[in-house]
């Protein structure tokens, strides 16, 4: 049987060494990678498909923790490390399998591993890694009538293109804005790739970081800077930059 892979994200080398020694004593677990950098955590989890992430919450801003949860693989469980006992409630609210305060003794790490293994056994009928494969497949070109598959706060969501009104981009991620929901959904995909998928559904690029569905546009107004202000049917306002003026013809058609 393959060992469960563990990622340790912690700023203290002393604590990392302590955890490492405990992991080495358990035949069911192995450390896949160690990082001190919060910016690496999401990519490391996705690249290694780790089973368990041990992460010190202080590496992240509090408001960024739900984003972390939503962007790591759905089968990757999280145990938070902390020097602050008051964070425990929030940790479990975020769906953590455990919450650890130092010292990280072998006995305490073994207790965590026992919790993880029991949880894994209880969920063995639920194909987390198969669902993750669906998420990875969602990065491939889709037919017009296929939906977008995204992970949202630990859930798998299947979103019809008709539900989406505009998409904002930031690096390797996009925010998907839906007609009936105030909160956008964060999705790991580039804006260019999303445009390839969504162009056939009536989406055009109006800014280097914005796609919009033509049918969702209510009003177009020129601005003094030479750009345009688009008002959507849900009341949102978006800028159409001069660089994408050529797309005005698509909007008006």
TrEMBL record:
Q: Does the keyword DNA repair apply?
A: no
Q: Which UniProt keywords apply?
A: DNA-binding, Two-component regulatory system
Give the Response regulatory domain ranges: 5-117
Which residues belong to any copy of the HTH LytTR-type domain? 148-253
**InterPro entries, A to Z:** CheY-like_superfamily, LytR-like, LytTR_DNA-bd_dom, Sig_transdc_resp-reg_receiver
Q: What name does the UniProt record give this protein?
A: LytTr DNA-binding response regulator
Q: Which SUPFAM superfamilies match?
A: CheY-like
Q: Which Pfam families match?
A: LytTR
| GO molecular function annotations of the record | DNA binding; phosphorelay response regulator activity
- Lineage top rank: taxon: Bacteria
């Amino acid at each position: 049987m393959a060992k469960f892979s563990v990622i340790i994200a912690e700023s203290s080398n002393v604590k990392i060494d302590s955890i490492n020694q405990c992991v080495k004593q358990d035949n069911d677990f192995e450390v896949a990678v160690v990082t001190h950098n919060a910016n690496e955590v999401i990519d490391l989890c996705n690249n290694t498909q780790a089973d368990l992430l041990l992460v010190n919450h202080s590496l992240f801003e509090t408001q960024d923790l739900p984003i972390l949860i939503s962007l790591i693989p759905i089968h990757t469980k999280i145990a938070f490390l902390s020097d602050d006992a008051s964070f425990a409630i929030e940790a479990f609210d975020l769906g953590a399998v455990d919450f650890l305060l130092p010292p990280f003794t072998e006995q305490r790490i073994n207790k965590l591993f026992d919790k993880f293994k029991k949880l894994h056994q209880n969920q063995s009928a639920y194909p987390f890694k198969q669902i993750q494969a669906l998420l990875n497949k969602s990065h491939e070109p889709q037919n017009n009538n296929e939906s977008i598959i995204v992970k949202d706060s630990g859930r798998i969501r299947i979103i019809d293109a008709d539900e989406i009104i505009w998409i904002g981009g930031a690096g390797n991620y996009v925010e998907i804005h839906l007609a009936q929901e105030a909160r956008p959904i964060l999705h790991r995909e580039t804006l260019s790739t999303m445009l390839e998928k969504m162009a056939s559904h009536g989406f055009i690029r109006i800014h280097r970081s914005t796609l919009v569905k033509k049918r969702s546009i209510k009003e177009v107004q020129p601005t003094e800077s030479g750009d345009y202000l688009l008002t959507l049917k849900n009341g949102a306002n978006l800028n159409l930059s001069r660089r994408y003026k050529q797309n005005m013809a698509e909007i008006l058609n």
